[in-house]
Amino acid sequence: MNLPAAALHEPPASAAKLPPSPTSIDAVTRALAASFGNRLVTSLAVRQQHGHTLTWIPNQPPDAVVFPQSTQEVSDIVSLCAVHGVPVIAFGTGTSLEGHVNAPFGGVCIDMSQMKAVIAVHAEDLDCVVQAGVTRKELNEHLRDQGLMFPIDPGADASIGGMAATRASGTNAVRYGTMKDNVLALTAVMADGSIVKTSTRARKTSAGYDLTRLLVGSEGTLGIITEITLKLHGIPEAISAGVCPFPSVKAACDATIITIQSGLPVARIELLDEVMIRGVNIHSKLGLPETVMLFVEFHGTEASVKEQSERFGEIAAEFGGGPFEWATKAEDRSKLWQARHDAYWAARALRPGVESVATDVCVPISQLADCVEETKRDIEASGLIAPIAGHVGDGNFHTQPLVDLTDPEEVARAEAFIERLVKRALAMGGTCTGEHGVGQKKIKYLEAEHGASALVVMRTLKRALDPQNILNPGKILVL
Amino acid sequence: MNLPAAALHEPPASAAKLPPSPTSIDAVTRALAASFGNRLVTSLAVRQQHGHTLTWIPNQPPDAVVFPQSTQEVSDIVSLCAVHGVPVIAFGTGTSLEGHVNAPFGGVCIDMSQMKAVIAVHAEDLDCVVQAGVTRKELNEHLRDQGLMFPIDPGADASIGGMAATRASGTNAVRYGTMKDNVLALTAVMADGSIVKTSTRARKTSAGYDLTRLLVGSEGTLGIITEITLKLHGIPEAISAGVCPFPSVKAACDATIITIQSGLPVARIELLDEVMIRGVNIHSKLGLPETVMLFVEFHGTEASVKEQSERFGEIAAEFGGGPFEWATKAEDRSKLWQARHDAYWAARALRPGVESVATDVCVPISQLADCVEETKRDIEASGLIAPIAGHVGDGNFHTQPLVDLTDPEEVARAEAFIERLVKRALAMGGTCTGEHGVGQKKIKYLEAEHGASALVVMRTLKRALDPQNILNPGKILVL
């Protein structure tokens, strides 16, 4: 009885020819230069800076880089590019990891670094409105006086627009959620240049389709995010943080599962394997024991933080972990978390001179120990150096093979390892990326994860909202 | 420079003629009867039961009601209806409030009440997978032995599928979020009968477009939700609940703002105005003082619940509220929340024999006191009886004019009041519905809330995913 009457996947009626013709590029560049003056840059150096992020994909520079200052200017740029069928790629701070902002078909890179206004802070409502180019550290600097914070912390000092576009999360997500949970509303420029406000400042709504969540995580392929309304949180009255060694990955994961299951509102719970700890010790000049560790943080009142940390200590001990050492001073805590945040660089310290190929997967937490342990065995069997760090409260972990990109055999070995990692995560009911996003490098895994029908729906959405395929083409989906 | 090159709003190429011809209905009904036997019902009584919910919209019965037992059967039904251009309307428990399941163009109602399987409970991962017809109380009954709960509680014992489709929330949302936050993944049948799984059981993902959130809140207009993967929570070790009288709406709202701002993790914080309390006293035989009240609940450990309740008592006292009376026994707590949940019926006790016209709005919490107070003055000036209850931690409140539907003048007066209520909420930065959804009655407010460009995007999505407009036509959007 299965008779598809009106198949969803209609061919794109009006897709632009990619890459665009030199004539189209020329027309767009001239018009932008006339409007934007020296905020339109076509020098090779600047184009190359925008054609490559922290990834092993070769540099793919755009044809021009433009620096708008308002949503209306972004709309003007997109409208112009739409007329000429020229790609537009939004650029935040260039810290994405899977080739999100490289420009495989050239086009115009929209650099958001001059959109830095904190438009409003509504302390009573625990929300704020910012332009897309504000970074998370800049925002927290701005908020501190008011006792407020924006907790989402992917490590890098990424822009809020980029974090929304990649559905970023990081160390605090186990308690505060990801960008999907912390964006109340967006302003975005659609493929025809129209400006859309997706929602209001109300904490919840049932008023129509959730355009906010459709754009969060769409990596600039459905619209260009220009302003974001974010949830904020009060800076906790008390914070306690500490490190706890474990005899094995399994012991650390089991302690994490019980911590989460028992409802302890842990703010951060991070696993670093012994290889990563060795890198951290080198890079951050720490003297941590080189074994599997959990870095943990609790937020609350003095009394509740004390209660939480005692409970966690008991749980850790049950699994052979400990001693659980607390950093009670703010500066010791900062040092600890700085070391965790620097894990990307610490990993590189393990094999100076080669490239780091960071990637991530996420599995149901019950599968985490198995997934990490199998992955470690795989790393060893592959002869790779690849430290592991993970936001284990969410079942999300990263590995970072250190690869000599001039050696094709080693590159192939690393690629094959990542493919096995993704297949392992999918077989365990997980996802090919917990927080890095798809970019170019994870495109090939989406059908295995979501199935053919879901990919048809995703392509249908992309074709409906960007019929010319000019918004960050070549990312997330093959059309 | 604003030259829309590729406008998003293309006309629907293949929209079905609505209502469908008797021949089409006949063909579909015969084919369904052949496949489903006595699970296909066309009696007027059953059709009318499915053509009306708790709303003042007149009964709009479907042409037939079918009771599938699996996702594949739903797919078969939708495929058949797609061939014949016949509308399909998903039906949960019929407790929606804005005319979501009425069938203005006839068609086939898919009643999910025989899809009651709890497919899996993953206690370690704090998630479960259920068929769409499982109700929240049935699920909690199933989970209790394992010390787990599903906290989202809209009052009615709604189906999980219906709650996902309307992006429901309710009393616990201030702590646990809404359906948008608690659905990890969905299985849905799309307009062509294809079956889509939107995501995995991983706690977070950045793997492509967020089809889960696109379907949550789409009210059966983009796909029919058949299975849901839900986040679960451990039943808290300790729960404390109590009631606290306040001298005014403003005092109660101000105490709520400070409670939220200071990071007290309140699980429920509900405002009932003095009119609603009068109804509750009548309906639930309670002897509460007839003034503005907050009903409050805290979840946590014994120590943290004690700390939270003491803090709340201090905050309430600062605003002239109190005394704060605690129900420490589970049975007293149940009685209290049963009374709150019965508010819909309690309100009706204030004017027996007429209809209740429940509606809701949601505003930034800083605007809540003004919005509720202006609304109360408006109620008085309008000569209506309309008690107010609200999930004030989220800025969301309900009012429930009691209206004699046989009196056109009174109906017009109530309609005009609701229109002013919505405009007031929008002017304060809020939304026309916090949790009830759009259905038929809120369609006219969406453009004022979202703007014309956002409505173009919503219509584009609808046309792309349901080119024939057969999925719950006449809801959310005018095409």
UniProtKB/TrEMBL annotation, chains A, B:
<dbReference type="InterPro" id="IPR016166">
    <property type="entry name" value="FAD-bd_PCMH"/>
</dbReference>
<protein>
    <recommendedName>
        <fullName>D-lactate dehydrogenase (cytochrome)</fullName>
        <ecNumber>1.1.2.4</ecNumber>
    </recommendedName>
</protein>
<dbReference type="Pfam" id="PF02913">
    <property type="entry name" value="FAD-oxidase_C"/>
</dbReference>
<dbReference type="InterPro" id="IPR036318">
    <property type="entry name" value="FAD-bd_PCMH-like_sf"/>
</dbReference>
<keyword id="KW-0285">Flavoprotein</keyword>
<feature type="domain" description="FAD-binding PCMH-type">
    <location>
        <begin position="58"/>
        <end position="235"/>
    </location>
</feature>
<dbReference type="InterPro" id="IPR016169">
    <property type="entry name" value="FAD-bd_PCMH_sub2"/>
</dbReference>
<dbReference type="InterPro" id="IPR006094">
    <property type="entry name" value="Oxid_FAD_bind_N"/>
</dbReference>
<dbReference type="GO" id="GO:0004458">
    <property type="term" value="F:D-lactate dehydrogenase (cytochrome) activity"/>
</dbReference>
<keyword id="KW-0274">FAD</keyword>
<feature type="region of interest" description="Disordered">
    <location>
        <begin position="1"/>
        <end position="21"/>
    </location>
</feature>
<keyword id="KW-0809">Transit peptide</keyword>
<dbReference type="InterPro" id="IPR016164">
    <property type="entry name" value="FAD-linked_Oxase-like_C"/>
</dbReference>
<dbReference type="GO" id="GO:1903457">
    <property type="term" value="P:lactate catabolic process"/>
</dbReference>
<dbReference type="GO" id="GO:0071949">
    <property type="term" value="F:FAD binding"/>
</dbReference>
<dbReference type="Pfam" id="PF01565">
    <property type="entry name" value="FAD_binding_4"/>
</dbReference>
<dbReference type="GO" id="GO:0008720">
    <property type="term" value="F:D-lactate dehydrogenase (NAD+) activity"/>
</dbReference>
<comment type="similarity">
    <text>Belongs to the FAD-binding oxidoreductase/transferase type 4 family.</text>
</comment>
<dbReference type="InterPro" id="IPR004113">
    <property type="entry name" value="FAD-bd_oxidored_4_C"/>
</dbReference>
<keyword id="KW-0560">Oxidoreductase</keyword>
<dbReference type="InterPro" id="IPR016171">
    <property type="entry name" value="Vanillyl_alc_oxidase_C-sub2"/>
</dbReference>
<feature type="compositionally biased region" description="Low complexity">
    <location>
        <begin position="1"/>
        <end position="18"/>
    </location>
</feature>
